[in-house]
Amino acid sequence: MPQLPHLKGLARAGLFRAGVEVDRFPRTQTLAGLLHTILRDRRVDTVVDVGANTGQFGRLVRSLGHRGPLVSFEPLAEQAAVLRDTARRQPPWAVHELALGSDAGRRSINVSNESMLSSFLPASS
């Protein structure tokens, strides 16, 4: 059976021929690496995701090894439904279909074609 370093070299060479260069860099220079370090060093037990959309951040947190409670808030019904489906398969993960803010009450939200850009603020260019 070929050794792992040999396979990595073959893969790197093949990718290079295809125009892709693979190189190492310190993990903390990526969002995932920095987040992993924060979760580990601060011993985070519960993660709160505000404006969770369909759960991209929550899935990242889970992929980094966080197995504690995750609490997500997403006011848009369609995105919250997708988020609930994801959360159901990765407990403990609670989803609340509402927005968080400094004032209590009901407000209209400006829904963008790109759901991640929806906001209570007026749309701008």
Describe this structure in words.
The chain has about 120 residues and is α/β, with parallel strands linked by helices. Helices cover about 35% and strands about 10% of the residues. The protein has helices spanning about 5-15, 30-40, 55-65, 75-90; strands spanning about 45-50, 70-75, 95. A three-stranded parallel β-sheet has the order 1-2-3, with helices on one face. α3 links the parallel β1 (about 45-50) and β2.
How would you name the oligomeric state of the polypeptide chains in this document?
Answer: single chain
Question: What value does the Rg take, in angstroms?
Answer: 20 Å
What is the beta-strand fraction? 5-15%
How many strand units? 3
Derived from helix and strand composition plus strand pairing, the structural class reads: alpha/beta
> Quick one: overall form?
extended
Annotation field: number of helices: 4
Order of helices and strands: HHEHEHE
As residue ranges, the low-confidence spans are: none
The end-to-end span amounts to 56 Å
Q: Assign a percent range to the helix content.
A: 25-40%
SSE topology:
Elements: H1 4-17, H2 31-41, E1 47-50, H3 56-63, E2 70-73, H4 77-88, E3 93-96
Parallel strand pairs: 1-2, 2-3
Short description:
The protein is of the alpha/beta class and 125 residues long. The chain is 36% helix and 10% strand.
Key features of this structure:
125 residues; alpha/beta; 3-stranded parallel β-sheet; 4 helices
